[in-house]
Amino acid sequence: MNQKSESDRVLGRRCRLCGCTRPLRLYPLEDFSVVRCPECGLVFLEIDLGAEKIKEMYSGDYYENRADYFFDNPVLNKGRDEEDTSIRNFRHGLELVKVHHPDAGNRLLDVGCAVGVFMTLARDEGWEVSGVDISDFAAGYCREKLGLDAHAAGNLAEAGFEPESFDVITLWDVLEHFEDPLSQLREVNRLLKPGGVMLVDTPNQGSLIRSVAHFLYRISGGLVDLPVRKLYHQFHLYYFDTATLGRLLEEAGFQLVHLEGRPIPDEKGRAGFLGRLAVKAISIPERLLHREFELLAVARKPVAQTKP
Ligand SMILES: [Zn+2]
Questions:
Q1: In total, how many domains does the chain have?
Q2: Distance 38 CA to ligand 1 centre (A)
Q3: In this structure, are residues 201 and 296 in contact, taking their beta carbons and an 8 Å threshold?
């Protein structure tokens, strides 16, 4: 393994947003460290990830181990009629897209489509939907169980879509999973028709709960690291705030047209009793301070692209 390929394989040595090669360690954890770029402020993981390792992370087990999260909803489980936060978010996203692109055609691509919940909702509302996911299991589930047009590809460029063929492209909780978010968003830009819109939903590094976790970690000299370990994990490689997300969108050729905070979903039940209590306690101040748990952005591909 030569030096260059290693630095490209190990995240954390170079900021993939601004190119800075001096990221600073925020939290050295067991299997990885959380680092912050001193130039642009991007927070990401220092972790060794070969492409094969990323693909392995999203095998069938990833979805089966999270069955409640992925399958227990009224879209895939007709016996359950109560709409949870993620379904309400998906409906809200479809509304936002219509508001910001009222003249759009109906071609929609969902990147990181998982087991097809959002695609099904969009199809029911009249969109002609396609999806792509790194997981063979997830794409196969979408095709075989739901009859959806879903492709398995870890890299958007490998999925073989035609340039400028989509009116809308959505990325729900997927941006933070990419090894190189900028190159993936540039590909999203290439696949969108001029004037088309992209919707991105991602955890907010500027959220109040992350500041509380940081404070506890710092004043305890790193001894109180449980909140940090709950909030940063190997599946989320990047953590954007409004500034770094704004810069990423601009570098990828987009104009931001809408940005809002989304609160912590009530169903963050995997965190256990104390975790749920912390989530409840923080949900009101995070709203008042506009430092919610997630960011939801809508960005447009300009009709006339300015040449650099
Ligand atoms: Zn940077």
A1: 1
A2: 7
A3: yes
Instruction: Tell me if 231 is assigned to some domain.
Output: no
As a whole number of Å, the CA-based R_g of the chain is: 19
Rounded distance from Cα 42 to ligand 1 centre (Å): 6
What CATH number corresponds to the domain at position 74?
A: 3.40.50.150
- Distance between CA 119 and CA 172 in Å, rounded? 11
Higher pLDDT, 277 or 192: 192
Where does the pLDDT of residue 4 fall: very low under 50, low under 70, confident under 90, or very high at 90 and above?
A: very low
Provide the domain limits for residue 137.
22-39+47-205+238-265+293-300
- 16 C-alpha vs ligand 1 centroid, how far in Å? 7
For residue 204, report the distance from its CA to the centre of ligand 1, in Å: 17
Cβ–Cβ under 8 Å, residues 109 and 170? yes
Q: In angstroms, what is the span from residue 290 Cα to ligand 1's centroid?
A: 24
Give yes or no for residue 57 having a pLDDT over 70. yes
Q: Give mean pLDDT, residues 41-66.
A: 76
Residue 220 within any structural domain of the chain: no
- In this prediction the pTM is 0.89
Spacing, Cα 28 to ligand 1 middle (Å): 19
Report CA-CA distances (Å) from 22 to 15, 35, 99, 272. 8, 10, 41, 36
Mean pLDDT of all residues belonging to the chain: 87
